[in-house]
Write a structure and sequence with these properties.
Distance between the termini: 49 Å
Shape: globular
Radius of gyration: 20 Å
Strand content: over 45%
Low-confidence stretches: 112-124
Largest sheet: 5 strands, mixed, barrel
Number of helices: 1
Strand order of the largest sheet: 1-3-4-6-5
Structural class: mainly beta
Number of strands: 6
Length: 135
């Protein structure tokens, strides 16, 4: 079984592109804090490269930006490539099946994004007298 679950923060804005056949993908890095501190009292983090495909890639590109907290469920894939100097490199990517946006929508401000005002009369709330409650 190859399954990974992470909760962390984006280290920079997501970067999107498309394959030659037109399939969109989005990449970003997530910093996940370790649950303990080191000998100097510092909390360390691990960094995971994440890739999303198709509609999930579109949503991540549109709504995520540096600092956002996300929950990710996916799998780990090993990728090998040759760098500019001809040296063979190996890296591990998290291929996201699910990305949960954990930062409140009102915190998003990239690209002129303005949060929508509350709906359903939430701004017109009236105090309720406890004697009017049926329980």
């Amino acid at each position: 079984m190859n399954k990974i679950m992470l909760i962390g923060n984006l280290t920079k804005d997501p970067e999107s592109s498309s394959t030659q056949s037109g399939v969109m993908f989005t990449r970003f890095t997530v910093a996940v804090n370790r649950p303990f501190t080191n000998a100097a009292g510092e909390r360390l983090a691990d960094y995971f490269n994440v890739i999303c495909w198709r509609q999930l890639a579109e949503r991540c590109h549109k709504y995520l930006f540096k600092g956002n907290k996300v929950g990710i469920v996916g799998s780990v894939q090993r990728r090998q490539y040759e760098d500019r100097d001809g040296i063979k490199r190996t890296t591990f990517d998290v291929v996201a099946d699910e990305v949960e946006f954990l930062t409140p929508k009102s915190s998003n401000t990239r690209d002129g994004y303005e949060p929508e005002p509350p709906r359903g009369g939430m701004t017109d709330m009236q105090p309720v007298d406890e004697a009017d409650l049926p329980f």
